[in-house]
Amino acid sequence: MKPPTAAQRRIIEAADPGTGRLSGSEAQLSALVRARLAFRHPRPPHAYFLTPAGHRLRDEAAARSRPAPAAAPAETAAAPGVFAARTGKETSVTGSEGPARAREVRSAWEGLVELRRMTNPDGARDRPCAWERTHLVQAAALALEAAGCLPARPDPGFVEGYEVSGTPQPEAVAVREPSPDGLRACAAALERAGWQVGEHAGPRGARYLLASPRRT
């Protein structure tokens, strides 16, 4: 298979970091599909998304272009205008709100489910795929937001909402929610999305979830 052209690499590198959604002409995007670096979503608006091979190319390019930091943060902020699932740990909220945000989340979730179908060996849509295992925090946050759970927000007076963060354990994220009902709703949402979930007590007795992508 021929390596991607410089123009194709630019399109890949400009993909949405959260969902892998691509922008470009129909001819350019169709060429990426033929190269197995992208796929076309079957539902309107028939957007194009990176395949795992496309994600790898983009991640490799990003690693080459940035200097090695002294200490990388657990979560990184999305660039302005770029969709990213909300983890509840944002210091400011930018981008769409209300119905527009709901449409973006629904489109991102549908794209992820299609990516599961295309990349899981058995075509399973109800089980996380390889991309989710390498983007645990964003994948869990998208599953929660798509299910209607509310992330914590930096707004004054807004205290309840989930927070998703990485953990030292491989393939596991922690989900915290101050409301017991909210924590149970988060657990149910992640289980429906194909995650294994266990509830634990923190050092001060606060309950939290430990969630991992299900393999079978």
β-strand percent reads: 5-15%
* Rounded radius of gyration (Å): 18 Å
Major beta sheet, strand line-up: 3-4-6-5
The global form is: globular
Main sheet, how many strands, which sense, barrel?
A: 4 strands, antiparallel
* Secondary-structure element order, N to C: HHEEHHHHEEHEE
**Treating each run of at least 4 consecutive H or I residues as one helix, how many helices?**
7
Structure description:
Residues 1-216 form the Biotin carboxylation domain. Residues 1-23 are annotated as: Disordered. Keywords: ATP-binding, Ligase, Nucleotide-binding. This is Biotin carboxylation domain-containing protein. With 216 residues, this protein is α+β, with helices and mostly antiparallel strands. The chain has 2 domains: 1-67, Arc Repressor Mutant, subunit A; 85-216, no CATH class. The protein has helices at 6-13, 26-34, 52-65, 98-119, 130-134, 136-146, 180-192, and strands spanning 38-40, 48-50, 163-166, 173-176, 195-201, 207-213. A 4-stranded antiparallel sheet has the order 3-4-6-5, covered by helices on one side. A hairpin with a 6-residue loop joins strand 3 (163-166) and strand 4. Helix 4 (98-119) packs across helix 6. The radius of gyration is 18 Å and the shape is globular. It starts with 5 loop residues before the first helix and ends with a strand.
